[in-house]
Amino acid sequence: MSTLALNPPLHLVTATQAERKPVNKWLVTVSVSFGTLMGAIDASIVNVALTHIRGSVGATLEEITWISTGFVVATVLVMPLTAFLGRLVGQKRLYMISLGVFLLGSMLCGMAWSLWSLVFFRVIQGFGAGALQPTEQAILRQTFPPKEQGMAMALFAMAVMLGPAFGPTLGGIIVDNASWPWIFYINLPVGLLGLAMVWRFVQEPDDIRVANQLAAAEQKRNIDWQGIALLSVGLATLQYFLEEGDKNSWFESRAITACFIVAALALVAFVMRELAAKVPAVNLRLFKDPVFASGTLIGSVMFAMLMANMFLLPVFMQEMLGFTATQSGINMMPRTLVMMAVTPLVGRIYNKVSPRTLVGIGVVAFSIGAYQMSHFTLETGTWQIVSSLIWQGIGFSLLFVPLTTVALSKIERAKLTDATGLNSLFRQIGGSVGLAIFATLLGRSATQGRASIGAHVGITSPDALMRLQQTEQGLIGRGLDAASAHLAAPAALAGEVARQAMVLSFEKMFLLAGICFMAILPLLAFLKDDRSMAGAQKPDVHLEM
């Protein structure tokens, strides 16, 4: 990008300032949060409705997963190209177009007549959702003054982190009281309100608008079609590998193996292309900044743990403790409520406390919660679950705000959308990697646990024989005849072994999550918050009241 694009002439920046009226930063925040929150919710809301959708469209268990996979793949494809698209059509216009595409996809999803029509419409919805997070993050960074950047990212964090937390609960309520198309239709009134507010209250900063216009001219002359093609192929195959790998036994499947090879080759070629391109579609040179690189990497690990916990804990409560979906949703709420309370406080104290201190405390808080979870048993009650979730809610709040704030602290205003696109992409990929790894390890650990426990319950073990006799007597006490009880007792004991093995597996996964988080502490050395760079991101006066 040329120097002129980064530093447009003063007369170009000031020519329209007199025509613009000041805009309330809080109205801007509310306006751009609608789309991000809906996109985050829709990534998880369909999970609780898959059974109903499957019956309605006549899909198999393997086919129905494409509803989620298609959305995630489409979202990931757009995220890193947000800045590229924003330079072509304008930042504000891109947000409105993306939100419009998301709403169109939502309406069509509700009207879907078959599985593959629904998958296609979910892809459209995902294309719309992909640019919403990065664009909102950039708009908030450009809207709030340097001293309030922590608060800006706190507001962004609430939209990004609360969406996955509320999605399953909201989806369950809608499905129980209406029908599954309404999980999509509910987006329409909320999204239209957000669209109207963005059109009315969001103003693209003059320096950003002029820089984008100048950069767009150069970009149009040198469109990086090769880089876009390599990125699309690489991310699509990588995301499919992560989403479907566990269900297909990973490298035992030829399709999954082929996706991994294609993804690796395409992404390596993409990196080489972008570093050599005259006008790259994705600015990978931003990773030369160790603060941005470390903040983005830690953020991806954080999201990996967040998504893994959102997968593991509800499964544990429902399959091991016998909770209903509603009960597990209610028991998950304390973490969400703590995040809602703590995140704004972290935004307020950000300028007074070192980001490394906040992140370090957050890592320890999360690890305490994970350690408590590693002691869950079949006798675990609501209080033990709530206690661990409170620690994790505090931890995530302390992590997200400083990470997203300091990671972008040295990024020039004209390159903020490039940075936020990459930041969002790595969070999304991190979440997918976390889910894939922990889902795979959970099953393998349970298999090993059954073998280990089974070695101690053989027919030569006095304790096993005693337990078998107790089980048999218990079955007789429930009304079975002696012969039936004698035949059913070994199966019941095997089922108990499997349950205990699964509990041990969950304990290991919770502990592993805490250990993985503690391992990122050395990266905090790179999180140096340079307050002197704040002036480089000072927003234009027309954005303040």
List keywords for this structure.
545 residues, 0% strand, mainly alpha, 75% helix
Descriptive overview:
The chain is an all-alpha fold and 545 residues long. The protein is built from 23 helices and no strands. Helix 10 (132-143) runs antiparallel to helix 11 (149-177). The radius of gyration is 25 Å and the shape is globular.
Summarize the structure.
By secondary structure, this protein is mostly helical. Helices cover 75% and strands 0% of the residues. The chain is built from 23 helices and no strands.
N-C termini distance: 32 Å
Low-confidence stretches: 1-19, 532-545
3D shape = globular
Please compute the radius of gyration using only Cα atoms. Answer: 25 Å
Assembly state here? single chain
The number of helices is 23
Question: What's the order of the H and E elements?
Answer: HHHHHHHHHHHHHHHHHHHHHHH
Structural class: mainly alpha
Mean pLDDT: 79
Q: How many strand units?
A: 0
Q: How much helix is in the residues? A: over 70%
